[in-house]
Amino acid sequence: MSRVLDLQRSYATPWTEQPTRLWLINICSYSCCFCQQLAPRWEIAARQLADTAVFAYWDTERAPQLHDQIGAVRGTPTIRALIPSLQPGNISHVVEYTGPREVRNLVRFATRLIPSRVMSLDIDSNRQTFFQRLSIPGAKLLLAVLNKSRAAATPPVLRAVSVDFFDDGLQVAELRPYNALYGKFIKEYSIQHLPAVVMIHGGDGSNHAHMRVPPTYSHFKKFLARELPS
Question: Please, what is the angle between helix 156-164 and helix 217-227, to 10°?
Fold first, then answer.
């Protein structure tokens, strides 16, 4: 089954159905040889980011008139990213991709644009907010301890979780080994392997649970279904 959505077979503005998702649209023409070369790579990229972004295509031969939010194009293939705002249902802005049409480049482009509400505990104000919420009974904090360098990007799946579960009151934070808090949290929450994900329920912080399966989106959903009150 294809992971790429045919926009002409869906709603006029399908991104309103998944308002927190990054949308990537391949504006193509069925008879264009460059579009034909891109199609299998687009499918592979869609499968790699299936839980964190939506990949779609628009065939200009079937429907020359593009939606206003996508904008006009001069040629095919044209790749556009519709970046959601953190206000549900709104598109923040549109970015056109001009790089190589290889899977790794497409995935890198998309990953950089996935929206995020993840708090980095490297930032002083975030640390203060984290500890304030930690002391509030009923607060819900998801701590991801990552074995990554300072320059490495936040994992796409963590970004997606931070946005998708924000309305449920969940705050997601990330911590890396060079951070001064690393040793404290490793000891306090008995973390033995990285990456580690810990759900902390506010109060004195003693009520916590480890996610002991690989950090995929489906595993996050099952874990949070248990840990977040309905």
Answer: 40
- Cα 142 to Cα 158: distance, rounded to the nearest angstrom: 10
H helices within 71-140, ranges in order? 103-113, 124-134
Q: Which pLDDT does position 10 carry in this prediction?
A: 61
Neighbours of 88 (CB within 10 A): 12
Q: Give the number of other CB atoms < 10 A from CB of residue 222.
A: 13
Residue 19: is its pLDDT beyond 90?
A: no
Task: Give the per-residue pLDDT at 7.
Answer: 84
DSSP-H helix ranges across 55-192: 103-113, 124-134, 156-164, 182-188
Tens digits of per-residue pLDDT, 102-147?
A: 999 999 999 999 989 999 998 888 888 888 888 888 889 999 999 8
Burial class from Cβ neighbours inside 10 Å (0-12, 13-18, 19+) for residue 178 reads: exposed
Q: How many CA atoms lie within 13 A of 144 on its CB side?
A: 24
**Cβ neighbour number for residue 26 with a 10 Å cutoff:** 26
Closest listed residue to residue 10, CA positions, set 72, 52, 75, 59: 59
| Cα within 13 Å of Cα(176), Cβ side | 14
Strand partners, 6: 57
Rounded-to-integer distance, Cα 226 and Cα 165, Å: 13
Distance CA(188)–CA(26), nearest Å, equals: 47
CA atoms of 7 and 5, how far apart (whole Å): 6
67, two tokens? 């939606």
Predicted model pTM: 0.81
